Task: inverse folding
């Protein structure tokens, strides 16, 4: 049964009062839940949509984070998602408070860039890459309202005092959602004097063909999802791909149409992209060749991106994880690269000489050749894969490399990651 508008607004007001309690309480309790004032917008199962909020000391800077978590694209895949991951389709088990992910932490040690900002987390329960506008599906089972939920959250945030600059950030499907929604958000907030910038973390998917026995290619999944969700990508992109509007869900096709300042973080060997292509747990040379081809394609697709950070790692998602502080490209840590990008937005080109390059793309083409990559583990055992064994399976002549460095091959194989990477750098 749907709640009356009066009761729904009262519930929303109570949630807001809880959200804007003292800063010390917010730090102690984490992000607080507020349900949307617009009760017609729901999660997939019809349960209320909402967001988590914490007011920071910097009233002029807001970080809004779109969560990821994959998606479904037809009745069968959505039914399977409901059976396996109902928490990504419903708010019925949302807690009243949530611990903040790294980029929304109020701890300066965990979040040196935005610890004092106002923090907003949009939990993902629409399964549509934040692009859907279907309020009732054709079979009456699921709703897909991701794009509308984002717009409604903005309206609620304006009532909470949204001002200054809004940084829209998202990971995985949330990263794709950032690119799909950034310009629309900028247009909505411009009359209110709010400036918008965006960071897409690991949402730069490619429409490459599937390998092996995988039944659906990424292109086919996007086509089905676009129709099933009643998706609404940016209109300028849809005009370019009028015969295939679902191509606008792929970052490199959408990017030329995005006017909002955008920073793209993307692992060159993104594990979600590899999985989407049917490349799983590579162990043979042929499988590693597939990994290398995907990396080459991702690297090529980023050539036109003005501000990007692309380490040569097999991983997926960074900004919500503690390791975002350590990962670097060419010795430049990710937080410094983002900080320089933000300063350029505020001050223009005067920061150019004193700051990190706009484009930081790993020069090495070997997976995991970056010493700051998250550790790669064997999916069968959970143990970390030795770097020498990893590179050997990918085709590196370990004996030849050892001879060139004046080492015994067995000695090289026993070396730790920290010892091996600097030695192998000239060979990779």
Result:
């Amino acid at each position: 049964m749907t709640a009356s508008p009066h009761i729904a607004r009262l519930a929303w007001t109570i949630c807001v009062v809880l959200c804007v309690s003292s800063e010390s309480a917010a730090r102690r309790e984490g992000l607080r839940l507020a349900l949307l004032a617009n009760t017609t917008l729901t999660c997939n199962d019809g349960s209320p949509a909402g967001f988590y909020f914490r007011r920071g000391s910097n009233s002029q800077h807001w970080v809004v984070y779109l969560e990821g978590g994959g998606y479904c694209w037809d009745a069968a895949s959505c039914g399977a998602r409901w059976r396996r991951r109902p928490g990504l389709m419903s708010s019925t088990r949302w807690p009243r408070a949530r611990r903040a992910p790294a980029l929304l932490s109020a701890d300066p040690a965990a979040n040196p860039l935005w610890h004092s900002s106002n923090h907003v987390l949009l939990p993902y329960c629409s399964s549509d890459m934040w692009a859907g506008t279907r309020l009732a599906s054709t079979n009456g089972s699921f709703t897909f309202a991701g794009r509308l939920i984002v717009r409604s959250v903005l309206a609620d945030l304006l009532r909470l005092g949204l001002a200054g600059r809004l940084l829209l950030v998202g990971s995985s499907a949330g990263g794709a959602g950032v690119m799909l929604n950034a310009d629309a958000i900028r247009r909505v907030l411009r009359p209110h004097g709010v400036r918008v910038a965006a960071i897409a973390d690991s949402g730069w998917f490619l429409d490459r063909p599937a390998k092996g026995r995988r039944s659906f290619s990424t292109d086919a999944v996007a086509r089905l999802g676009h129709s099933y969700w009643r998706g609404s990508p940016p209109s300028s992109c849809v005009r370019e791909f009028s015969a295939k509007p679902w191509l606008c869900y792929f970052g490199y096709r959408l990017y030329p149409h995005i006017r909002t300042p955008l920073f793209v973080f993307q692992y060159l060997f993104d594990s979600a992209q590899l999985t989407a292509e049917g490349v799983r747990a590579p162990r043979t040379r042929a499988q590693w060749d597939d990994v290398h081809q995907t990396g080459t394609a991702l690297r090529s697709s980023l050539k036109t991106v003005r501000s990007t950070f692309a380490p040569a790692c097999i991983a997926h998602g960074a900004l919500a994880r503690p390791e975002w502080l350590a990962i670097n490209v060419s010795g430049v840590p990710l937080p410094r690269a983002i900080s320089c990008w933000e300063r350029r937005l505020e001050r223009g080109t005067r920061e150019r000489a004193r700051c990190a390059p706009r484009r930081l793309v790993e020069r090495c083409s070997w997976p995991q050749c970056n010493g700051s990559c998250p550790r790669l583990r064997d999916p069968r055992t959970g143990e970390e894969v030795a770097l020498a064994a990893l590179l050997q399976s990918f085709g590196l002549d370990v004996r030849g490399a050892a001879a060139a460095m004046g080492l015994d091959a067995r000695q090289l194989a026993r070396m730790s990651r920290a010892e091996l990477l600097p030695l192998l750098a000239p060979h990779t």
